[in-house]
Amino acid sequence: MKRFGFAAGVVTPLLLVAACASQQTPEAREASEAASLIQEIRRRAAAAPDDPALAALLAEMELFGEAGDPERARPALAAALARASGSRKARLELMSGWEHDFHGQPREARGAYVRAVEAAKAAPPESEGSE
Predict the structure, then answer these.
(1) Which residue of 16, 31, 42, 94 shows the fewest CB atoms closer than 10 Å?
(2) What is the rounded CA–CA span in Å between residue 103 and residue 112?
C-alpha cells in the first residue's frame, strides 16, 4: 500500500504539471488562430487565382498579418496587382511601396507611391463614405 501511495504522490503532481503545460496561453492561441486563418486564405487564393478580392486580401495578410510571411508578400502583391483595378489597385500600390521601403528599395517604393496616386486619381468615387 505504501508503494501505491508513493507512486500516486509522485505521478499525480507530474500529471498536473503536464496538463498545465499543455494549456495554451491566450497569445499562443491567437497566434495559432492567425496561422490557421492565413492558411485558409492561401488555400482559397490558390483555388481561385483570378479572384481580385481574394488576391488583395492574401497580399495584405502576408504583408501585415500576424502570421504573414514576408517572403510571400512580394509575390502576393504582384499577383494581386495584376488583377486589381480602381481603388483596390491604389491601395495595393501603396502597400507595394511600403513593402519596398521595408526592404530598403527607395527607388521602387517611389515608383509604387506614384502609381498609387495615379490609380487613386483614376479610380471612380467609392459609394461608401462619399457624399
Answers:
(1) 16
(2) 14
Tell me: the pLDDT tens digits for 11-41?
455 444 444 544 557 666 667 888 999 999 9
Q: Write the CA distances from 67 to 3, 7, 51, 84, 117, integer angstroms.
A: 49, 43, 22, 24, 29
Rounded to whole angstroms, the Cα distance separating 34 from 121 reads 34
Q: Alpha carbon of 30 to those of 33, 55, 76, 103: distances in Å?
A: 5, 24, 23, 27
How far is it, in rounded angstroms, from Cα 92 to Cα 112? 9
User: 0.70 cut: is pTM over it?
Assistant: yes
Q: What percent of the chain has pLDDT over 70?
A: 73
Q: Residue holding cell 495595393?
A: 92
User: Which residue, among 48, 45, 107, 52, has the nearest Cα to 80 in the 3D structure?
Assistant: 52
Query: What is d(CA 46, CA 52) in angstroms, rounded to the nearest whole number?
Result: 12
Length in residues, the chain: 131
